[in-house]
Amino acid sequence: GEIVVGVSGVPAGTSLGVITIADWSYRVLPATFTGGGGISVSVDGNTIYAGGQFTAVNGQSRAGLAAFDLTTGALLPWQPVVDATPVVVRAAAGRAWIGGIFSRVSGQRRRGLAEVDAVTGAVTPWNPDVLGVSEGGYSYGGIRDLAIGPDGYLYAAVGSPFPSFSGPVTG
Q: Cα(first)–Cα(last) distance of the chain, in Å?
């Protein structure tokens, strides 16, 4: 198995690395993030998904979301567009979930939490509508972290003062 990590470095920005568990060797992937803070990473199959407060990857515009080939580190065309700040991304079974402080994903209203196709980045019909996140991404907390449980459910950690959901949260 392998562990994918985001590594912050100044002034170079943040990059991705892979640790091989069998021998604890480390390899850096050719991925450099610029324009913001830390990143969240998730792996599904041979794809690494990254979300965070970055504006570009390897010199290409990416508004806080990007995907990479796990083997080569090549930047993939997957590029959902959020209107404010994605904080976290998790992926499994051909779907990716984005959480953060935003109100639209690729032009569709999705407050704080969205599901997109893991290959195309197209927004799915699922819309839990996190209350407390307004148009333009102003938030009373938003989604801070996501986890996919062994039961297949998506779990969300919300910021204070605890926004609520106006729709079903099951995906």
A: 27
- Give Cβ neighbours of residue 111 (< 8 Å, ≥ 6 apart): 102, 103, 129, 130, 131, 133, 134
Give the list of residues 6+ apart from residue 50 with CB closer than 8 angstroms, or none: 6, 16, 31, 33, 39, 40, 41, 57, 65, 66, 67, 68, 89
Are the beta carbons of 143 and 88 closer than 8 angstroms?
Answer: yes
pTM above 0.85, yes or no: no
DSSP annotation of 122 reads P
Q: Which residue is associated with the tokens 């065309």? A: 77
Cβ(87)–Cβ(52) below 8 Å? yes
Q: What is the pLDDT of residues 43-84, one digit of tens each?
A: 999 999 998 888 888 899 988 899 999 988 899 999 999 988
Of 122, 100, 116, 97, the closest CA to residue 37 belongs to 100
The half-sphere exposure of 2 on its side-chain side, counting CA atoms within 13 A, is 21
Gap between the Cα atoms of 27 and 92, Å rounded:
24
